[in-house]
Amino acid sequence: MAPRKNFRNQAKKEVKPAAVVNKNGVKAEATVAASGGGGGFSGTKIFTWFMVLALLGVWSSVAVVWFDLVDYDNVIERAKEFRFNFSEVLQGKLSAYDADGDGDFDVEDAKVLLGLTKDGGEITNENADSLEEIFGILAEEGSDWFYGFFTFLYDVITPPVEKDPEIPESQTAEEEGDAGLKERPVSVVLREAKEESAVKEPDAVPPPDDDAAVSLPPISDDFIPDDSRDEATHPYEDENDAIDTKGELVEKAQPQQTVEESKQYNDQPGSLETKEAEAESVPEPEADVEPEVESVPELEAEFVPQLKENAEDQPKDKLKEKAKKKKPKLLNKFEKTIKTEIDAAEKLRKKGKVEEAVRAFETLVLQYPQSPRCRYGKALAEDGLAEKMLSNDMLQKAIATYKEASELPNATPDLIKATLKKRAERQQFLGRMRGALATLEKLVQIFPEDVALKNDLGVAHLLIGDNKSAKRVYEEVLAVAPSDGFAKVHYGFILKSENKIAESIPFLRDGLESGDPGTDDGRFYFHLGDALQRMGDDSAYKWYERGHQRGHFASVWQRSLYNVDGLKAQPWWTPKDTGYMDLVKTLERNWRIIRDEALSVMDKTTSLFVPEEENLREKGEWGQFTLWQQGKKAGESCRSVPKTCGLLERYPEATGCKRGQIKFSVMQPGTHVWPHTGPTNCRLRMHLGLVIPKTGCKIRCTNDTRAWEEGKVLIFDDSFEHEVWQDADSYRLIFIVDVWHPELTQYQRQTLSPI
């Protein structure tokens, strides 16, 4: 019988290392780890390493506590700020994808979207879109969460930045701000930065500053009257509703006022818009051209107080008032639900895509016809399109849409105010002063406590020559806000126009010193200085100097405000300087003919000479007989002096001067004309002596005084300060001819607005 094999031993003996071919093609034997073999870890070694790590942890903890390496209170505080619960982070965004109606997003909702319910089903296009959005949220929030978590750990192990004890506590605000930023945890800074970047754009362009008056348009010979469809019931409304259809957006001014005070408000000092518009067409100034004017006596700089220009100088009550200003609330309750659609259209407008913005808002208005915010956005877009197209017609459409928006139900008070203010501003831009007045009156009725709106209403009254109503408005403002600088300067101006010179000075001065918005205007420096001069107060020149420093006057002497920059400036000119030698020779050769025609007019029983109406006389009598005004011929007057007008017809530099006059001037003995300046530097003034007494008549321009001669022409720039005395025994008669400044181009002469 064959011997029984011991399979156990045989199996044990037959165990051989298996040959393994490595990636290089070399065979290697694989060893089998046996108990106690050199290739493995024993239980003793594992225990040893565990003890080493434990001891390291213990000693590390001791070191941390002993050396106070970690601020545990700070760590706990930072941990509270960090959002550990990832589910809470996501739940707010994923709840919108709740599929089973239990109010949150969970596994069951995911099954529905994936088509894994008991009823089966498949993933629809809608579900696929939802899943794609969910994965996007998970990716975004997941990356943010892990980044925030590791940033938190970094903050914990990073030692805080200590302040250098050598740095004084009186370091600047900027240094303190930087230091504070460095000491803050990185996780907090990152989270705040993300939240700040997530803030959406405002709903609409903020309305103009409530403290500022509506800007005033420049003088123009064209006028677009108000649309009678807008405020047909208003007593000031014009009947004519003609509009510009040429597609040209041009600032229009009100018609020439019959009230002299209104003329002074509009014409004499001028508006900032006019100066900016005219500066665009200014010729290049000549090199090294200096005004040939003697220097003004040195002024005491400390006399005029500095105007308040920064927060430190402002009264505390005004700073608090500014701090309380909040972003206007333009959306009603319903409009908040469509805010995304409004924002999309508004984004187009802000990017300058006004045509697309108009179409977008028109769609919104059709979809939500009772939404004031949608209609207001449409008006703003139309306004922007009008500016782009240079179209008065489109601007008029925007004005109508502004009105529609303000009259819709459920419009917020802030939206009503912003809409009507914008409407009034654009009406004034078009020269529709009475329509703007009606709009501002409506605003004041709705918001009777708003002082800034009343200030704007006062300006609107001034622009139509209604000084009496404007005065009443500013008296109401000063009764409730006695420190309102805007009301003060305007009230002072009105008092001065009433010839209440002494009373006007404190209002003008206090208003300018306030530094309030709308007070830093050349008009008020002009009238304050003029009032002080008439009271014999030499401090007038200190205020003129201040106006010059503020950029309102070319110099202390040259104080006109309707200017073209870069023109040669000197008080006295020779005929050769002007280049109008032929005109001067014609006047001087024919001075007797001109004189005789003037005397024939003066000898008539009904004199055609009218008294000077610009309130420039201290005393005496001063009469004028005008032949051309603003480049337009007075036909009736020229029929009385046909030879004189015939002589001038061939000199367009005079007859076409839209910023000047051609007239006879007679001044009786005992007359004194206050120091004053003309409104513009765009003209020069020629005086031809006709009847000149031997003594007692003189004219000063800056600090150079001269006298007239019969048959001779004097030429000066009346934008410089000048003054006249007539202390003779008989009348003085001269012929005044204004001509364009010789450096103005032909284009400028054609396009400059009349004065």
The whole-number mean of residue pLDDT values reads 75
Q: Please give the CATH class of the domain at 572-751.
A: Mainly Beta
Structural class: alpha+beta
The CATH topology of the domain at 572-751 turns out to be: Jelly Rolls
Specify the CATH architecture of the domain at 572-751: Sandwich
Mind describing the biggest β-sheet? Answer: 8 strands, antiparallel
Q: What sort of overall outline do the alpha carbons produce when their principal axes are compared?
A: elongated
Distance between the termini: 144 Å
Q: What report would you give on this structure?
A:
This protein is 47% helix and 10% strand. With 755 residues, it is α+β, with helices and mostly antiparallel strands. Among the domains are: 172 residues, Tetratricopeptide repeat domain (Serine Threonine Protein Phosphatase 5, Tetratricopeptide repeat); 180 residues, Sandwich (Jelly Rolls). A hairpin with a 5-residue loop joins strand 1 and strand 2. Helix 4 runs antiparallel to helix 6, helix 19 runs antiparallel to helix 20 and helix 20 packs antiparallel against helix 21. It is elongated and about 130 Å long. It starts with 6 loop residues before the first helix and ends with a helix. This is Aspartate beta-hydroxylase. Keywords: Disulfide bond, Glycoprotein, Membrane, Phosphoprotein, TPR repeat, Transmembrane, Transmembrane helix. It is a single-pass membrane protein; Single-pass type II membrane protein. It is found in: Endomembrane system; Membrane.
